[in-house]
Design goal:
This protein has 214 residues and is of the alpha/beta class. It contains 7 helices and 13 strands. The mean pLDDT is 91.
Length: 214
């Protein structure tokens, strides 16, 4: 595994910037004024929504990014590879996990991420997609579904965690060890070492415990 440092962010309201502290840490790890590449492919209707992109662009500028580029789904693999190679931090936003995983595989960008040796930040669906298994809750269904991610790390996580899902997570944890990450909290993997920012919970063997923060 080539990955230097990965941030799995449970969610963030970009308008409120309520996980700014976590992003500040990630940006410092990427050199303080990183060249950022955003891969915004997690939405079923892929477009260049001006407000959403400008909001993220302005946010990252305020965090000190020296450049912000977007990997377009219409780009060739070679163009995307060049953007990633020149970056210090790759950011995967939220949306639909299954859509993001499919698109990353279709464009072979998963292979680029496996070899990436700098800082990688996944928010919500972006965090889930990087894992071996993803726990996804569909809006029109109460049940949590397990889908296969890219497997960059051998983790199973639940983003947007709320205690109302404890009973189901305890049940699932009898077969899978699960990290539950609320919004504005993060799990961090640094060359195999795991740490936590904010309130992250471990569900294992039908029991719930709180993880020690960094």
């Amino acid at each position: 595994m080539y990955m230097e440092k990965m941030y799995f962010l449970g969610g963030e309201n970009i308008v409120k910037r309520d996980a700014r502290e976590i992003n500040e840490i990630a940006f410092r790890d990427a050199g303080g004024a990183p060249r950022v590449v955003v891969v915004p492919w997690a939405r079923a209707s892929f477009d260049k929504a001006y407000k959403r992109r400008k909001r993220l662009f302005d946010y990252f500028r305020s965090l000190g990014a020296s450049t912000i580029d977007f990997a377009e789904y219409s780009d060739s693999f070679e163009a995307i590879a060049a953007k990633v190679a020149c970056s210090d931090l790759v950011y995967l936003p939220g949306g639909l996990t299954s859509v993001l995983v499919e698109r990353l595989k279709n464009k072979s960008v998963d292979s680029l991420l496996r070899r990436y040796d700098k800082v990688l930040v996944g928010r919500s669906a972006g965090a889930l997609a990087l894992c071996k298994k993803c726990l996804v809750t569909y809006r029109n269904k109460r049940a949590i579904k397990i889908i296969t991610g890219l497997g960059l790390v051998d983790l199973t996580i639940k983003v947007h965690y709320k205690p109302s899902k404890d009973s189901e997570l305890k049940r699932l944890s009898k077969e899978e060890t699960i990290y539950a990450i609320p919004e504005s909290s993060a799990l961090v993997c640094d060359n195999g070492a795991t740490s936590f920012i904010g309130d992250v919970y471990l569900f294992q063997n039908g029991k719930k415990t709180q993880c020690d923060c960094a």
